[in-house]
Design brief:
Elements: E1 18-20, E2 38-40, E3 60-63, E4 68-71
Antiparallel strand pairs: 1-2, 3-4
The structure holds zinc ion (ZN).
Residues 27, 50, 53, 55, 71, 73-74, 76 line the site of zinc ion.
């Protein structure tokens, strides 16, 4: 059983964003490790919630100079 270590994930204040404190129940039906949250970034609107997300594994985008990987469907942390 591996634990997801949030301490290695930078906060988003550098780009004016934050991590949504509400933990997603699942990601398009897939298991979400405890601690994975959705990024809220000014000017970005995710088309889906994690629960409704249909994005594939490759639908992701690096932000914060490549330190945080986000799903482009819902903004969930995929780092
Ligand atoms: Zn997603």
């Amino acid at each position: 059983m591996s634990t997801y270590d949030r301490s290695s994930i930078p906060d988003l204040s550098e780009i004016g964003g934050y991590w949504d404190p509400n933990p997603p129940g699942h990601h398009g039906g897939a298991y979400v490790a405890p601690g994975r949250l959705v990024a809220r970034i000014p000017g970005r609107q995710w088309p889906h919630t994690p629960e409704q997300c249909t994005a594939g594994a490759t639908d992701s985008e690096w932000v914060l100079d490549g330190r945080v990987l986000l799903c482009t469907g819902c903004g969930i942390d995929g780092t």
